[in-house]
Amino acid sequence: MCSWTSGIQYNPLESRLKTAFRLSNTVIPQTLGRKEFWLVLGLFILLYLLHSFGLLKHVPGLKNTARGQQMDWKEVQLTSSFTIFFEVFYTNACYSRYVTYYRNSRELFLQVMLIVYDLRIHLKQADAAHARLVYRYLLCSLLLFWEQINEERNVISLGETIRQYRSQLLTDEEDEFLSGMDPQFRYLVTMHWTMDVSHAAHEQSLVPASTVKLVLDKMQKVLLLMRLLDEELTLPIPFAYFHMLNLMVCVTLVLLAICMGLAQSHLGFIVFFIADLVFLGMLELSSEMTDPFGDDEVDFPLSSWLRETLEKAELLFEYFCPYDDQKYSWEAILEKHRSPVLLGSGLKSLVYEKPSHALADGLEGDENSKDAPAKSVRRGGSRTISMGQMLKDSNEDDDDDDDD
Fold it and tell me: pTM higher than 0.85, yes or no?
């Protein structure tokens, strides 16, 4: 059983130890590359050695114990508790944005595929030239949108994919016209071309107005998803919150370095190393999830998604189907489907077997009955009483009441 996350395949049932000590495709290498990680760890080692050699005998503010002067743990608990709370809250907010980015990105690709379906079904047979023009402008708009997203991130694989397909989808005149625009306007202009040509094509092909509205609504949804992704990326988590969180993490790590460095515990180095790695590692992970369109370990494989969508769109729009030709039709296949198509053997008896003898007798009795309506009511155990009999019994009960 494998799960997908950002293009990385992993097995959630794998050994916990093997997963825990894995370094590839994690944020541990980036965390170990941070200067502040080694700076705080160096502070811990320095205090530990100074205290071990007795060079810290009379430091003001420290508590005298049998092992020498130490820092009270209660002075660290409050700060570390607040830091953990705010860091968990920040990580949860970043993950929510991450999931939103994923859903909107996948929905964008899906809507493009649905429009290609509609063009193939409703427009291509009536006007192939217009349909191909709409199809080309639609893919151009998708391509230029991701080009604009990649403008600042400069992901190599995504850039190569965009350049490969851009030369095939845009003519020299169109490319020259769009190159003079700001990147954030290019996909908007090509989407306008898509909708304009689509509307004109449907009018010429006499397609029903409901079908035209259906296709244009999907194009508007594609445009809406593009705008949502673009605007969400320009609205990061407020810097004031991010600043306070970084300040609290740094202060907490310094306090832990002082407290654990003076504790003279043989396991202190291991415990502080893990605490340092977790505090800074969670910040690193959260920062990567706030913008999953780069080339970090948790980022989306946009190049694969874009290439897959373009290849499938080309297949669905241009593949040859013999039943599109007027010489053939679906009538030949329809003749083979006059009888039910059953895939499971358990349903065969329900469809083909005749009703049981008792049920058939009951049906015949109801049909031959003249006094009672077709509908009957079941009372008590298994006795079936017709509606006419119920009315007759009710009238007799009323007569008995009148006599009394």
Answer: no
